[in-house]
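Quick one:
INPUT:
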């Protein structure tokens, strides 16, 4: 199941919820620019957040943070390919 979630930063994330209901990013939009998630390089959790280090279809690397309580997403890191 795919779902699109918006944030206050102009970041929209399209997620896939697996059989356990855990969401992971499949694509995100920076403003109007779509970036596909080619690979999830790493993932980790904190008490109230889940982090995904992703390689984008543009060749760049991003860390996306999901706030479990609010459902909001933020980009916390960006590195050019």
């Amino acid at each position: 199941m795919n779902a699109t979630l918006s944030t206050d930063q102009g970041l929209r994330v399209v997620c896939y919820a697996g059989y356990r209901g855990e969401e992971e990013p499949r694509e995100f939009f920076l403003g109007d620019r779509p970036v596909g998630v080619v690979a999830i390089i790493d993932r980790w959790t904190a008490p109230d957040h889940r982090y995904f280090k992703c390689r984008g279809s543009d060749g760049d690397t991003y860390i996306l943070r999901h706030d479990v309580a609010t459902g909001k997403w933020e980009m916390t890191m960006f590195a050019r390919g």
